[in-house]
Amino acid sequence: xxxxxxxxxxxTLRVLALGFAGFGLAYVARAPKMAGLTGILLPTPTxxxxxxxxxxxxxxxLAMFLAFCARERPHHRLGLLAAxxxxxxxxxxxxxxxxxxxxxxxxxxxxxxxxxxxxxxLAFLMAARTRxxxxxxxxASEHPLLRP
Length: 148
Fold this sequence. Notes:
Shape: globular
Helix content: over 70%
Oligomer: single chain
């Protein structure tokens, strides 16, 4: 039976995966509406496809990775760090943009910033309390996910 710490890490990774998947699906299924939340216009099918692929595809890919990491304890720390670095990257650029714009931005950006920074903080705190696990199986060069 997994310890409560492992359970919380797994749950956190699953929640993060669901969050990224939800936004990813929204960007894919409702690209013009999602773009419109921040004043972005998608004037052509090409623009819509690229927006959906970039925003939706990246988030769906990360969601799948986080779901994979949630499955086994050796991957928990990696998933938490990946989510944390992704969110802090997005949040940092958003914060710099808001500062440079001197606050002349839609309220949705402030909500996004708060979510990103809070979720990144949670992911980093949980990762910091997670010891790396040495696999008992093959070495890194023989690991099935790392083979060329």
